[in-house]
Amino acid sequence: MADPTISTLTAVCEKFYPERYVVDNVVKGTPVLDALRRKMREGGSERITFDIEYGRVNGGVRAYNATRTLTHSPEIATQGSLDWSHYYVDVVLEQLKIAYNASDPRRLANYLNMYVDSAIATMRERLLSPDIFKEHTGNHMYSIMDAVSDSTTYAGINKTWDGLSQWQAVVAEADYTITPSTGKVAPISPYLENFSKMIRLIKQISGKTPDMIVTSGPVFDRLKEQINANDRVSATRSGDSVAWGYTNIGIDGVPIVYDLDFETAQCTDFDGNGDNRSECGGHKALFLNFDHLYMFYLKGWNMAWNKQGWQVSKGATDYFNAINWTGGIACTARREQGIIYGIDPDQDVDDFKLMSDGQTNKDDFVSSGS
Hints:
Blueprint: H1 4-16, H2 19-27, H3 31-37, E1 41-43, E2 48-53, E3 77-82, E4 85-94, H4 95-101, H5 105-131, H6 144-147, E5 153-154, E6 157-158, E7 170-172, E8 178-179, E9 184-185, H7 192-206, E10 212-215, H8 217-228, E11 248-251, E12 254-258, H9 260-266, H10 277-280, E13 283-288, E14 293-305, E15 311-312, E16 318-331, E17 338-343
Parallel strand pairs: 1-14, 7-17, 10-12
Antiparallel strand pairs: 2-3, 4-16, 5-6, 8-9, 10-13, 11-12, 13-17, 14-16, 15-16
Helix pairs in contact: 1-5, 2-5
């Protein structure tokens, strides 16, 4: 005989906590998750498989005569694939408390609400939001950091072998040479003009302006100081900007947000005694284009309850279920993204410098845009 309490729990979840409600509340207050969610895609059953653009069709001007022949453009896209990662958060309810409330679905929904909200917060704050800023390892998802870099391999393929350096993201960083006056490597300055230059550089290479810049709190504060002192760049705020530990400012029409999970996962003190990116460390800034950066999910597993529904624990003391998400993040055009490495938010304003073209991989991209 079916447990009537389980039937009631199932009906309450279907009415008050459907998939859409859970998705909306998981991403609430986190700007990057929210932006990724807006173009969330359903993926295949075995792996995330998607087309990746890595070039542009060649073009030009040609006089025509009978001796000329037509030539075809090179391949500009390929297909990559990523493994799914599965995330879940248990929801466990005491049987005795359920018994007190089971007679009234509204009371049961009120009791369940705290546990569901806690599970949603755990999914957001302890699982998805931190992991989107961590490089893929083990069971953790393929993230933004795997896509937005100058790594040669992504989504199981390597396109640099044929000279297609535009396969990588746009990168700026210190040049890792010793500055004679200090005896140390100079960092990238947390300078508004450097962020503005990066925006222009990405647009020059890809033809598109980033949708959002993500950085650390200390770098954000240094940028905000300059904005407050300079009226030609306007600061903007919105009602949601103060939700769950972030706010935003704008430069050249692009919002800059700070994210505590990004700072924790990716930012360290800059060490001018190092010889390379890894040794020097420093803070970072992501320049993201969400037309080519997606959150994928496996059909039926987009913040879904367990397929087997509510169950009773072995000792018959609890009812339990879980909220599940199976997915990952994929980038369909890495050249549309950008990242600055090696920022020192502690640098004195008198030492701020505009980064040179030599500190970027600008020259790696074919000038014709192919």
